Structure formats: C-alpha cells, structure tokens
Amino acid sequence: MTRSQELFDKASRVIPGGVNSPVRAFKGVGGTPVFFKEGKGAYIIDEDGDKYVDYIGSWGPMILGHGHPAVLGAIHKQVDIGLSFGAPTAVEIEAAEKVCQLVPSIEKVRMVSSGTEATMSAIRLARGYTKRDKLIKFEGCYHGHADSLLVKAGSGALTLGVPSSPGIPEDLAKHTVTLEYNNLNQVAETLADIGDQVACIIIEPVAGNMNCIPPVEGFLEGLRTLCDEHGVVLIFDEVMTGFRTALGCAQSVYNITPDLTTLGKVIGGGMPVGAFGGKAEIMDYIAPTGPVYQAGTLSGNPVAMTAGLAVLNEISKPGFFEALTEKTTLLIEGLQQRADAAGIPFTTSQVGAMFGLFFTDQDKVTSFEQATACDMERFQKFFHLMLEQGVYLAPSAYEAGFVSAAHDDEAIQHTLDAAEKAFAQL
Ligand code: PMP
C-alpha cells in the first residue's frame, strides 16, 4: 500500500470523501488521489517521495512555481509582525493600487477570501445596483458554489433555471438563466425578451472549467454591446484568467471593458484571496458607502495581501508574460506533434499560460457540447499514463491546465517524452 492510499483511507474517516474539495477525489479519472507534501519550482513531491511536473499549480495560483523566494521572503517578513488585525493596513492599499493599475476597468476593488465570495458578492452588487433579480450565465462555466450559480438550464433556455445541487431553493434558482457559451444570438434573443429583468451577465472570458475554450470572435464584443443596450451589468469572472492569460487579464487580450471583474487564484499567490472590482460608480454601491452588504473577518488579510502583491510585482517584470506564453506554446505544440505522430485524434487550445487538451477529431473546440463529446476514456488513460511517468495533469477532462514560470526546458522535455510514450499506448 502506498502512503497516499493509507492517507486517503485515513482521511475518508474524518473528511467527507477524504477531500476538502470534490475534484481532488479523482472521481473523473478513477484511482486514489495523490497526497502531496512539498513543492519546489515546477515540481511537486508526494507523500511517497515521488516527484511530478505540476500542471495544476494549485488550480492556477502558482504562476511563479512553488516556493518562489520573492513570495516566501515577503510572507516571512509579514508573518513576523502580524497575521491579522481585522482592521485596515497599508499593504491592502498597495495591493488594491496594483490591481487598479494593471486592470484599468477596475477603478475600485474589494478584497475577499475566495473566488466564490468574489462572484457571489459581485452578483449581489449587480442586483442591488440595477434593482433587478435575474442573472445570465453560460453552460460549462463555473463561478464558484454560491446558491445562484449552482443552477442549470430548465428544459429550454428561456424556461426557469433549476438547482444543480440539492439545498438550493427553486425560488432562487428560477432567477438564473443558463445559455450556451459562444452563442451570441441566443443571448440577444433572451435579452430582447427579458432584458429589463436581468441584473447581470457573468462569464469566464476564456472558459476554463470545461477544459479551455476561448471565446469565438465577436462573442465578448457582442455581450458588451447587448449589456449596454439593456442596462445589464457585464461581469467578467477572471478568477482563473486574471493575471494568467495576460498581465492585464483576459479583458486586455480581447480588448473589452467589463463593468465588474472578479479575481482569485493568482492574486493570492497561493494564499486564500479573491477580489471584485470595477466601475467606481457601481463599487460605491457596496457597504459602507452604499446599501449593498458585504464583509469579511479575514478580508484583506495582511499575509495574503503581501503574498499576492509579491506575485503581482514579479509578473509585472518586463517580458514575463511573453516568456511564459512561449513556454506554454512549446508544451502544447510538442504534445500536438506527438499525438499526430501516434495517430491519436487530438487538439489543443491556449490563451497565455492557460491551456486545454482535447481527445477529439474536431479541429477546434468552441462549445460545451463539443467539450463533452470528447473521448473521456482516452483522457483517463492518458492521465494515468502521465501520472505514472511523473507528470501531474488535472484529474478531470473538464479542467484547464496551467504552466508556471518555473517550468524550464527540462520539465517540458520530460513532459513531452512522457506524452510520446503515453500516446503510443493509447
Ligand atoms: N470562478 C472561476 C472562473 C473559477 O475557476 C473558480 C474556481 N476554480 C471560482 C470562480 C471559485 O473560486 P474558489 O474556488 O476560490 O471559490
């Protein structure tokens, strides 16, 4: 028995399913989850002492790799002088100023402790600001586990939303409309019908929770125009894409100005941080300036702010994103070549340092329907073949992958050599 198996048995006795977040349980790929004890640069080391090239990076935050000296140094300094005060600190201003400087659509920003809190709060703010109840989201996008967001489409796009988890009141779910990602006509038709009831549209500008699906040309622009026409607040959920697709987030890649943006992951550098921000006029609607309530005991926590700020400073260095994007391209082009050579139907996607791998004969995957039609069995086999060779990919075919600045030529070459063997065995 491996130590991971031992620990999983032990964990399952006191933690539901043995994990503190469901995807970690390996349900999507089968087998026992790997328990980790250490991270160094591009690598993570498990409880059995095995080393893996890490393409999850804690689901996005570890953009500098594990144990970056600038981040650790900043954290150590802060830890020595104070963990938390529940009162204003200077470092939270510095972090907010940095975010506003890097993302011009964010005029004011409020820090929270997770991506879920960020999206939940942004939606409450949009509802309070517009005095409307409905929200539009897209199938295949994930925005955390707030009640209004764990909702799926009813029998048709325009029918009332239904809870996608027990515990969510139908009365609440009915206010959520779920439409098809990359289908602008459907959004236009829906808004023509119920536009005056819709508070906000929330979208991942690059979908990263159904593998990695970039927006088709004109989709985000179209959403911006439609939101303006109908007085709807456009929320870009950049919890995953923020400071991951580009220094100015995905909104800078596609040149769209959302009304509100939600952030998480990279902005905390591995500490629990989320944020939501945008137009000052809307943000001033939040307490204590405005009537919409939102709060947090650990919001703007000085250790977390210090860590996030250190990461933002590192990724702002000239050439950082160019180099990181290049590494990511090297990886996915290498994977494509090896799949092609082995005759495996396969395609990829990439925006900045975020990528997707699809076992499909389609040239390009642009919809949730196409993402779910990929060969899941092949993905599962590929995942385990890579894991056995020391490459840790997301244990689900519906997750994006992440490359860090610490992924050097050696780590990428190791990945490509492993993939060559894996493709040959598929
Ligand atoms: N939005 C997006 C786009 C996400 O990918 C996630 C988490 N993967 C969330 C929100 C929720 O963030 P958290 O897990 O920090 O609550």
From TrEMBL:
Cofactor annotation: pyridoxal 5'-phosphate
EC number(s) from the headed UniProt entry: 5.4.3.8
Gene3D superfamilies: Aspartate Aminotransferase, domain 1 (3.90.1150.10), Type I PLP-dependent aspartate aminotransferase-like (Major domain) (3.40.640.10)
Subcellular location: Cytoplasm
GN (gene name): hemL_2
Similarity comment: family membership: Belongs to the class-III pyridoxal-phosphate-dependent aminotransferase family. HemL subfamily.
Pathway: Porphyrin-containing compound metabolism; protoporphyrin-IX biosynthesis; 5-aminolevulinate from L-glutamyl-tRNA(Glu): step 2/2
Organism field: Litoribacillus peritrichatus
The organism's place on the tree of life at top rank: Bacteria
Name listed for the protein in its UniProt record: Glutamate-1-semialdehyde 2,1-aminomutase
Oligomeric form and interacting partners: Homodimer.
N6-(pyridoxal phosphate)lysine carried by residues: K265
